């Protein structure tokens, strides 16, 4: 298998050196060059023909967003953004994902020495994944020591039997890499009176608030970052805050959002498995769940638990996914009753929710997209 050829674009010489060192530790990655600004990067892309670009958000002479917009129009290629953990950095990074960037990593922090192995594994994995991804611009090292991998059991024990206490459907959505845009496609298509939607997207704490606000601006539903104890209502969508697990719980009279500051599950917080398990326990067979594009397998087992309660479950198909890791893992487990292209998912979620509310049987539609 050929090495992934990477070009690093960053105005900081220190960051260029650090990223080069970390990426070079992976035997399947070759750093073919670095560039301090987009103008030099443009020439090096022509000369070196990299497979993947890492791109700083804030640079002199031309900012990363302007360069990315031009790049995706003239020479589309996989790009991993390098972003600061600030509100402005979050807004700019979300815009980059809209324009076609595959994923992002945070800027190396001052305390990176304490988390060097985790950071190295993250950036190497994302660069290798980006090389296999299918970037879709919008039309208008060696194995390192990592933390233990926990399952959803670390946050919420699996229920014996399912709930269906409220009797009304809730739509649960999980996503990771490429998910910010996939979620936008779904929320844009929802009517203002749609069933409540709960969303876990793998995202840092500084990004979830700006992401929720962006989704609120493009959806007829009211989209907010979930708050602990918040009632779950029709016409509303709730985004899991970065750094906290989102659970759906029954408080005796209604469904509410619960936030849990437990350990990482499948190396993520929030975790899709945790959300899906809570929905299986509290909502049961009237739930509707979709697992969208993303790297890894978080959400696959949770989707299986939902399916086993009788809930309607589906996954995004490979052709429309940026990365078919999470939905592919769920499909191979037999956790999903249906597999659909992204554009078909919003209408199908609404149809399944109507059927669940009416108690009608659901016809499984196994599609290869």
From TrEMBL:
The lineage of its organism: Bacteria, Pseudomonadati, Pseudomonadota, Gammaproteobacteria, Lysobacterales. This is Protein-glutamate methylesterase/protein-glutamine glutaminase. Phosphorylated by CheA. Phosphorylation of the N-terminal regulatory domain activates the methylesterase activity. Residues 5-122 form the Response regulatory domain. The keyword Iron does not apply. It comes from the Bacteria. Belongs to the CheB family. The active site is at 176, 202, 298. The keyword Lipid metabolism does not apply.
């Amino acid at each position: 298998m050929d090495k992934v050829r990477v070009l690093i674009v960053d105005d900081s010489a220190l960051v260029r050196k650090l990223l080069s060192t970390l990426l070079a530790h992976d035997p399947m990655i070759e750093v073919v060059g670095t560039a301090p600004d987009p103008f030099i990067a443009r020439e090096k892309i022509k000369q070196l023909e990299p497979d993947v670009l890492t791109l700083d958000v804030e640079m002199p002479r031309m900012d990363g967003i302007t360069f990315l917009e031009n790049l995706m129009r003239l020479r589309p290629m996989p790009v991993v953004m390098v972003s600061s953990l600030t509100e402005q950095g979050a807004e700019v990074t979300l815009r980059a994902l809209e324009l076609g960037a595959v994923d992002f990593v945070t800027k190396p922090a001052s305390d990176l020495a304490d988390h060097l192995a985790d950071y190295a594994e993250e950036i190497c994995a994302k660069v290798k994944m980006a090389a296999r991804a299918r970037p879709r611009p919008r039309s208008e090292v060696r194995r390192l020591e990592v933390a233990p991998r926990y399952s959803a059991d670390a946050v919420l024990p699996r229920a014996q039997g399912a709930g269906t206490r409220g009797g009304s459907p809730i739509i649960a959505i999980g996503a990771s890499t490429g998910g910010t845009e996939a979620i936008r496609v779904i929320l844009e298509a929802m009517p203002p009176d749609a069933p409540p939607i709960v969303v876990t997207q793998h995202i840092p704490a500084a990004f979830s608030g700006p992401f929720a606000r962006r989704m609120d601006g493009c959806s007829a539903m009211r989209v907010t970052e979930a708050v602990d104890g918040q009632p779950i209502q029709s016409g509303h969508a709730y985004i899991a805050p970065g750094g906290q697990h989102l659970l759906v719980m029954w408080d005796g009279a209604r469904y509410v959002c619960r936030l849990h500051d437990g350990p990482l599950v499948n190396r993520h917080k929030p975790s899709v498995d945790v959300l899906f398990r809570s929905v299986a326990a509290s909502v049961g067979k009237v739930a509707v769940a979709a697992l969208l594009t993303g790297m890894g397998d978080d959400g696959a087992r949770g989707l299986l638990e939902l399916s086993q309660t009788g809930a309607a479950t589906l996954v995004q198909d490979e052709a429309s996914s940026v990365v078919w890791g999470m939905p592919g893992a769920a499909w191979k487990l037999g956790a999903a009753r249906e597999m659909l292209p992204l554009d078909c998912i919003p209408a199908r979620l609404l149809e399944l929710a109507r059927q669940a509310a009416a108690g009608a049987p659901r016809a499984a539609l196994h599609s290869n997209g």
